[in-house]
Sequence to fold (336 residues):
Amino acid sequence: MNKNLIINISHPLRAITSYKKLLFKHRNFLIAPFYHAVYDETPDFIKHLYTPRNFDCFKKDIEHFQKYYTLLETKELKDLTSNQTKFKKPPLFLSFDDGLSACLPIAEYMKQKGIPATFFISPQFIDNKSLFHRYKASLLISKIDSESGKNLDEVLKVYKLKNKSYLIQLLRTITYKTRNILDDIAKLLNYDFNDFLANHKPYLSKNEVLKIKNMGFTIGAHSIDHPEYILLNEKKQIEQTIESVNMIMTLFNEKTSLFAFPFSDVGLKQSFFQSLLKYGVDFTFGTSGMKQDSAQNNYQRIPMEKSLSSAKNILHSEHILYAFKKRLNKHKIERL
Fold:
């Protein structure tokens, strides 16, 4: 369900439902907000995908987390799963996906504030070796928005499209399996993704990731190159997960194996999660909001960039929705 819709629907409920009472009721439930990065001006490679927080908004989010939640370090996750710790305020696990270079100033700010967090990274993108297919699509949409002339006409002719609006629609539908289309369109438009990577460096370098780790933060895996897992067979899902986890642990000397699913873990089978446990993956994280999960050590995170609302409104809405679904016994993801 659309996050803005959830927040709008829950608006009148927030007025009559005590946030503090819900926090107390859910005081032993892991709350896991996540971001990608923070920008005061949204770059083109993100512009057509989601709206990131600016720094002022992010700082207010952090203040809210500190006031109402118990911020967890990675090592405390094991105590949570064994029910060894009882909390006065709900535990909160903060994370960032994709390993974007804008995460470095975020880490520096959080270091000053004493905020623990985990940064989930896809090894293929470290040092700007390649670019996530959805970021390519966003760059091309920005290019097309201002494009006219023979290059655009050639693209429309090749793909048999009436105008650039249809081309933009096509770009929005491209997935990991059809990502080569992006390179083909870029070539026709005389747009070079390698030039973009070299000049703008959207991702962290290995040395920058090490700098973040040395500040005391944890580095986790985010697949090799960010596919939609639902489009992969189970063998490929396992390969993407285990190879990326092993690479991250080796590159950054991590002792706990953490993995955050790119896009979503919706539709993934119980047998897949059982395989991960056999390979020794400690914790995995989805993106379905505040829900329980039948898969062992798999936690659902809360996207913070699908709404411009405050952290309090986003999380208050999540608590309300969870309490409502629990009454209907719809609060838990059951894996097949």
In short: The longest strand covers residues 118-121. The chain has a mean pLDDT of 94. Residues 3-129+204-333 form a domain with the TIM Barrel fold (CATH 3.20.20.370).
